[in-house]
């Protein structure tokens, strides 16, 4: 039986969650750096929900200290019940992709906590990135959209959290 591109994109999207939180964040950064040329046209222009929504959430993160910015990103990956995580969870999948694109641009400008210059991916994450790179640009976007769609907390289906009051 031959493997189809649909299988590859689904496998890449589902296997992404097997990496540690920080490795997932690093992969998102390396995806932006390595395949940013293909993500660039897809993210900003594709959001059918107003890009102002993603920009508003980005502005909330931008106002935080670098340590707090990193914690927000970790909270999104780990589905922590926070206000930003719930706001993110209410976004469309394409707007979520735009939000991560804005974060990566902010990291590039060092407005958002940047990746350490000497950081290198673990071998499994590096292999994952190598599997992503040769697939079609549209399929790369599909993988990335699937990844970011699963982050955050869906406020419509999340039970009340006594600890946070949310």
Quick tags:
single chain, 166 residues, mainly alpha, orange carotenoid protein, domain 2, 0% strand
Main beta-sheet strand count, sense and barrel state:
none
Distance separating the two termini: 48 Å
SS elements, strand count: 0
- How many helices? 8
Give the averaged pLDDT, no decimals: 86
Task: Indicate the structural class.
Answer: mainly alpha
Please name the CATH architecture: Orthogonal Bundle
Q: SSE order in H/E notation? A: HHHHHHHH
| CATH superfamily grouping | Orange carotenoid-binding protein, N-terminal domain
Low-confidence stretches: none
Proportion in β-strands: under 5%
Count structural domains: 1
Q: CATH fold name, please? A: orange carotenoid protein, domain 2
Give the % helix. 55-70%
**Molecular shape:** globular
Query: Roughly how many Å is the radius of gyration?
Result: 16 Å
- For the record, the CATH class is Mainly Alpha
What does the model show?
The protein has 166 residues and is mostly helical. The chain has a single domain (5-149), classed as Orange carotenoid-binding protein, N-terminal domain (orange carotenoid protein, domain 2). The chain has helices at 5-16, 21-46, 51-62, 66-77, 83-89, 93-108, 123-132, 137-149. The radius of gyration is 16 Å and the shape is globular. The mean pLDDT is 86.
In summary, what is this structure?
This protein has 166 residues and is an all-alpha fold.
Task: Break the fold down into its secondary structure elements and pairings.
Blueprint: H1 5-16, H2 21-46, H3 51-62, H4 66-77, H5 83-89, H6 93-108, H7 123-132, H8 137-149
Helix pairs in contact: 1-7, 1-8, 2-6, 2-8, 3-6, 6-8
């Amino acid at each position: 039986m031959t493997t189809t591109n649909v299988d590859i994109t689904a496998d890449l999207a589902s296997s992404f969650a097997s990496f540690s939180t920080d490795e997932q964040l690093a992969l998102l950064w390396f995806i932006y750096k390595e395949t940013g040329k293909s993500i660039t046209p897809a993210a900003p222009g594709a959001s059918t929900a107003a890009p102002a929504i993603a920009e508003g959430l980005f502005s909330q993160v931008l106002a935080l200290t670098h340590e707090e910015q990193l914690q927000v990103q970790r909270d999104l990956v780990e589905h922590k019940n926070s206000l930003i995580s719930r706001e993110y969870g209410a976004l469309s999948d394409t707007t979520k992709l735009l939000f991560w694109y804005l974060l990566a641009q902010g990291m590039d400008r060092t407005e958002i906590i940047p990746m350490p210059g000497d950081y290198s991916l673990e071998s499994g994450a590096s292999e994952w990135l190598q599997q992503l790179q040769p697939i079609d640009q549209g399929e790369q976007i599909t993988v990335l959209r699937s990844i970011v769609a699963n982050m955050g907390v869906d406020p419509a289906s999340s039970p009340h959290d006594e600890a946070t009051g949310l």
